[in-house]
Amino acid sequence: MAKRSHKGNAGQLPETTFRELLELVEKPTDRKRPSAKALRTSGTEVLVQAVYGDASITVYKNGWAIYTEGRRATVCNVWHCQKAVEYVFQDGCTQCVQFEEFADRSCVIRLALEGEYRLTRNESTRKRLRESADGNETIWKREPDKAPDILTEIIAHEESKALFRRIAGCLTVRQAQVFRLHILEGYSQGEVAEILGCTAANISMCVRRIREKLMDVMDARDMGES
């Protein structure tokens, strides 16, 4: 199937509606979010759309899309946008987006909303990481139902700030960021890679090293070392 391509501004949107787009793409079978690089390398494009300015959307046959704005990019699950989605904006306001509101409008409108939200969320997360780089002012928190199965006993039973300081002290800056986002806050490795601007493989290796260091911290604690 030939891809649909349109170059122009927001006043020249193609007639492909969001409902029609869902008929062009497959529903992702893997919940793991692919990287933008992987999609560009091996994905089959079905739609390329200039949105406005330097923003663009590329939709792939496998059900994923890349939203790009300048040098920033994020990967969106097209079928996720079919569900009712509640967005929480920086000013604290929430907005619930229903499928029927966008089903028969240009698919670009719905995907641009999702892409802009993800870019804003990623930037907000990076800012939060920079502001708490030393990891000492606030005890890191997580969502228990989302936390991966990595030393969860440490997180579930240890609430002492001293232990968190000790853990942070044995990690590099990048490892501390991954520890906070992936282990404590429940972001997937793919999402962490997107937020930090690196590959999923780098995050996977980082998680392995974090596991090793945390085990050393817990072993030292059990042996009564200071």
Report what the structure shows.
- The protein has 226 residues and is of the alpha+beta class.
- The chain is built from nine helices and seven strands.
- The strands form two sheets. The chain has a five-stranded mixed beta sheet with strand order 1-2-3-4-5, covered by helices on one side.
- A hairpin with a 2-residue loop joins strand 4 and strand 5.
- The longest helix has 25 residues.
- The protein is elongated, with a radius of gyration of 20 Å.
- About 13% of the residues have low confidence.
Concise overview:
By secondary structure, this protein is of the alpha+beta class. It contains 9 helices and 7 strands. It has helices at 18-24, 36-42, 99-102, 107-131, 152-157, 161-169, 173-184, 189-196, 200-222, and strands spanning 4-6, 45-52, 55-60, 64-69, 72-77, 85-88, 94-97.
